[in-house]
# Entry
Amino acid sequence: MKNSRTRHLAILGAQWGDEGKGKIVDLLAPSFAIVARSQGGHNAGHTVFVNGEQFILHLIPSGILHDGVTCVIGNGVVVDPTALFAEIDHLAEQGIDTTGRLFVSDRAHVILPYHRDLEAVSEARLGNQAIGTTSRGIGPSYEDKAGRRGIRIADLADRSKSGRLMTLLDANVAARNSVIPSGPMSSRSLVAELETVWARLAPMVTDTSALLHNALAENKSILFEGAQGAMLDIDHGTFPYVTSSNSTIGGVCTGLGVGPKAIDAVLGIVKVYTTRVGAGPLPTELTGSAGDRLRESGKEYGASTGRPRRCGWFDSVAVKYAVQVNGIEALALTKLDVLDDQEKIKICTGYRCGDNVLTTPPADIGQLGRCEPEYEVLPGWAGVGSCAGVRLESDLPSAARAYIERLEELSGIPAAIISTGSDRKDTIVRESGLASRWLK
# Structure
C-alpha cells in the first residue's frame, strides 16, 4: 500500500558503479513526477531494456523513457553539450521525445574540448599509476570547478569579448596550450562553437533547484538519481581510484540544491556479485577463467566505453560500508540470473590484513591492496533451477533464496527488489518492501 503522503526516494549505487541503477530507475520512474540526476558526467552509463529494445543513457535519467515524467540534470553534473545533444538525438531516433521534459541546471559546469585533452595527458603521465578514467574530461572539469575557473552553463549566455565567458576561455585555453603545445586551440573558435551550443541548449536551461522546490511545495514526487557508486565517491571511496564527485547521499543534496529533509528514503543498488571498471583495488576480484566466466555470463562491458569490467564475488564489507555512509534502508539486488551456472558461490565477509580481519574498508589504499578476502561459501543452484526471468520469489531455486537471505543478513538491511533479467519485467518486487509503495 502506498504511503498516504507523497514521498521522495534517492537511488544510489552501493558498490563500484555499474550496479544496474538504470533498470531500477526505469522500473520506479512511472510513479514519480520528476527524476533528478545529481552528479557525474557522461562517464556514467545506464542500459535499459524495454520489450527487447536497448536504450543506453549517459547524462539523461532513464525516467525519460516514460511519457509524463520530467527529467532534471542538476548543478552537480558536469555537462558535455555535444554528448548531451547526441543522446537526445539518439533517443529521438528510438521514438523518445525529450522536448519540454528535460531541464538542465544553469549552475552546472560545462565540459569543453580542452578538458578531454588535459585528462588524456594526465593519464599518460601517470603511466602504470593511471586511474583508468574514461578520458572524457570529467575530472578536469571538476578541477576547474574547485579551482573557481570553471565555466557554467549560465556563462554561455554572454559571449561578449569582455564578458566572463571570454575571459575564462582565454585563460583556460592558454593553460591548455602551454601543456599541449602541438595543435594549439583557439578560444575564439571555441566561443563560436558555443554560440551554436547555446542556441540549442537555452530552452532546456533553468534554475533546477527552484524547479525542484516548487515541485516539493506542490507535493509532486521526486526520484533522486545518483551516478557511479559509493566506493567511487571522492571522499568515501577507494581514493585516488575514484570518480571526481560525491556519489554518496550528500552529493544528492549539493548536486540538486535540496535539503536532506527532502529525501524520505534511500534505496541502494547492488549486484549479487562485484564489478569494477578501471584501476584500483578490488578485493574479491576473480582472474583467469573464473573471472572470464562471470564477465561473459553477466555481459560485463561498460555502457559508456565498452571496456571489460573486472569481476569478483560479492563483497559484503564494501556493501555494508555503503549502507552506513548513505543511510540506505533497503537494497535492490540485480543480476541474480548471472549466477545460474555457479556450483558454489562465495561471499566476502572480511578483509584479512596480516593478523587482523577488517570489517570496514581501510582508508590506506596500499593496505587495502594487500588485504585478502575472507570467504563464506554457499551452494549454488546450477543444474537444479534457474533465476532467469523469474517474477515470483517462490519460483526461485531454494539455494538462490538462501543466498539472498545471507546477503541481507550481512548487509544489515532487507532486499526490496530482486532483478532476474535485463528487461524491466524480469523483476521481483516484495510487497512488504520499501519499493512497493511507489510502484503503480
